[in-house]
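Hello Y.,

Per our agreement to keep a running log of every chain we model this quarter, I'm adding this entry. I've kept the format consistent with earlier entries: sequence first, then predicted structure.
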Amino acid sequence: MKHAIETVGLTKRYGSLTAVNKLDLKVEHGTVHGFLGPNGAGKTTTIKILMGLLRPDEGTIKILDREIRGDTPEARLKVGYMPELPRFPKHLKGWELLDIYGKMYGMTTQQRGEQIPKLLEMVGLKGREKDLIGKYSKGMQQRLGIAQALLNEPELVILDEPSLGLDPVGMVEVRELVREIAKEGRTVFLSSHLLFEVEQVCTHITIIHKGVALASDTIQNIYSKLSGSSTLHVELATPSDIIVEALKKLSFVSDVTPDGNMLTIELKTNDDVRPQISQEITKLGGVIVSMNLKGQTLEDVFMQLITKTGGEK
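Predicted structure for the entry above:
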């Protein structure tokens, strides 16, 4: 199985507004794929179409190698889904909610009895499973939502803004859960507007704006295609014109600007060439006090793509 999700020409309109515009999306099996875009880009609309909650106006959809046409529940039996801002009945206990969902999935009493405690422990709710959901914090409810998405042991897990509204501690907890899910060999499709979060956990990304996919590849490939050159800041124990001139002659260096003991080295590559730089400086008798490589971040790449298509700066 090559693609856990594949769409061709996916389009959804609301009157004169095109929310998703001929979207071609491929999510490889076994990856953590980030789905990025500003508010109103079409992320949640796309996910709702994938889950059968909305009907597309055009295009085809395949999930786990099976073509989806309208509401096809049996095709989604191996898909786990947590919507944006999940809302659960406050009068239920945590384990009761999962038990109800398990019955809806057709799980036997024995299956529910084995799976629910395992998931509660995985998401950090062991010991709180008998508390009312109304007493859960926002982070606990998000973690319960992730447990619900994993209940049917899915091959594909779709999470729509799983860190939305969480404090920094809650965000870290969610990132760790995503890593745990990926370690089990599941495919994770993660919608988010938090670029740092995506950079931390995702292997692949698709950037969408105004319903159109602007880029889709591994994070490293997108960096290499779109990001500018990196800059290396090196502090030497003693200034040296000989070292400056030698560094300028290296094939991957475009310029070197000395400022006292500090050297600002402009690179022609996004590869990590610190070992070669260190070797050259040491060979000429230089002593390195510090070295800091600054490349473009995912935010830089994201803004570069968005502004090219007329998005707001």
